[in-house]
């Protein structure tokens, strides 16, 4: 029995995830992973000695799950058990959202396109979940508001239960356009002024790398750090929404992530200057190694998890052990 989980792990490989239905990816295999995470792990976790801080937490292996999969507290806890050292919640909004019409996930060999549209239970139901089952591991609360006022309302409601916020200034799948750079700067300052909690801001690759760097420069006093990057806006004829718009993620977006990391790190060279959580096609030890060694960033993924399964966290941890090896 104790060996079962590590015996199953190699079976959960790229080939397996190539054949699971897109509906499994959309629902994220919640029950499957719940059962799987209940099997005792017989192999110790891989630990690096990177020691990056996330709010009050020190992560010796700074690898996590990006926002999008964990739309219940139970799923956040499953992701943690499966190897994510920190978990970012699904983006939560003031009111419940059903999201966009299906199909809303398209899968390719090296990418996913999603047009989920932030389906979530709304902040009141989410608070009930957090109160019933408060997370005991490092986690980040992602939120999206349609206005500064909505963001402030979300923070006021969630603040007693949350240690770190992530403002989703980057979702391509809502009916609202992204704010331009100057507006984003103003809004981020206004929103962060009402809380003492650390706030990360998640930015879009629709902004130029210089635009995202400017946001960091002009808000650095107000924020804890950045999350780079959200999905790249694209169109696909099979998506169920009227405009056929969705967001591209996974393997092929890695070069785009590097462009943004490079530009922002040109003004903030180290993690201590500006913490960055990097997500965008980080799906191998080599890529985790590059992101840590060259850009001193925390490593995070969701498409890697959806397309390669929970072993992704071991793979990325392995890259980090090399990046942080003491000579
Ligand atoms: C199915 C799916 C749902 C997502 N939902 C969210 C979300 O709710 N909030 C958010 O900020 N980003 C969301 N994202 C974007 C990811 O968090 C991440 O920024 C992006 O996919 C790039 O990283 P990756 O290549 O590792 O997936 C979602 C991505 C996917 C694939």
Question: Would you give an account of this structure?
Answer:
The protein has 327 residues and is an alpha/beta fold. It has a single domain, classed as TIM Barrel. 38% of the residues lie in helices and 17% in strands. The chain has 13 helices and 14 strands. The chain has helices spanning 4-8, 14-19, 22-27, 30-38, 73-81, 123-132, 148-158, 181-192, 209-219, 254-267, 285-295, 303-308, 311-323; strands at residues 52-54, 57-59, 63-65, 86-88, 105-108, 111-114, 139-143, 165-168, 199-203, 225-228, 232-235, 245-249, 276-279, 298-301. Strands 3-4-7-8-9-10-13-14 form an 8-stranded parallel barrel, surrounded by 5 helices. Strands 5-6-12-11 form a 4-stranded antiparallel β-sheet. The longest helix has 14 residues, at 254-267. The model has no long low-confidence stretch (mean pLDDT 92). The chain binds flavin mononucleotide. Residues 66-68, 90-91, 112, 114, 116, 118, 142, 168, 171, 202, 230-231, 249-250, 253, 279-282, 301-304 line the site of flavin mononucleotide (FMN).
């Amino acid at each position: 029995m104790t060996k079962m989980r590590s015996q199953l792990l190699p079976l959960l490989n790229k080939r397996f995830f190539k054949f699971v239905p897109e509906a499994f990816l959309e629902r994220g295999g919640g029950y499957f992973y719940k059962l799987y995470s209940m099997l005792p792990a017989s192999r110790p976790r891989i630990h690096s000695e990177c020691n990056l801080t996330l709010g009050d937490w020190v992560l010796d292996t700074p690898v996590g799950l990006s926002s999008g999969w964990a739309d219940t507290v139970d799923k956040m806890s499953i992701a943690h058990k499966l190897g994510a050292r920190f978990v970012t919640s699904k983006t939560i909004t003031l009111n419940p959202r059903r999201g966009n019409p299906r199909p809303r996930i398209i899968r390719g060999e090296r990418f996913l396109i999603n047009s989920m549209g932030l389906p979530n239970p709304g902040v009141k139901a989410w608070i009930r979940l957090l109160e019933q089952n408060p997370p005991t591991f490092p986690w980040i609360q992602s939120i999206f508001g349609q206005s500064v006022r909505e963001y402030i309302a979300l923070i006021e409601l969630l603040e007693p239960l949350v240690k770190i916020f992530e403002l989703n200034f980057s979702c391509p799948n809502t009916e609202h356009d992204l704010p331009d750079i100057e507006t984003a700067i103003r809004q981020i300052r206004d929103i962060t002024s009402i809380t003492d909690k650390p706030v990360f801001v998640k930015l879009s690759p629709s902004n130029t790398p210089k635009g995202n760097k400017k946001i960091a420069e002009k808000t650095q006093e107000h924020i804890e750090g950045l999350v780079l990057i959200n999905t790249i806006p694209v169109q696909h004829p099979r998506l169920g929404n009227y405009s056929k718009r969705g967001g591209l993620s996974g393997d092929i977006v890695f070069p785009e992530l590097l462009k943004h990391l490079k530009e922002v790190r040109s003004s903030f060279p180290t993690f201590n200057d500006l913490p960055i959580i990097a997500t965008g096609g980080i799906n191998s030890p080599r890529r985790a190694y590059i992101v840590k060694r060259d850009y001193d960033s925390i490593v995070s993924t969701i498409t890697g998890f959806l397309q390669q399964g929970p072993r992704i966290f071991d793979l990325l941890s392995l890259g980090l052990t090399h990046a942080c090896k003491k000579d």
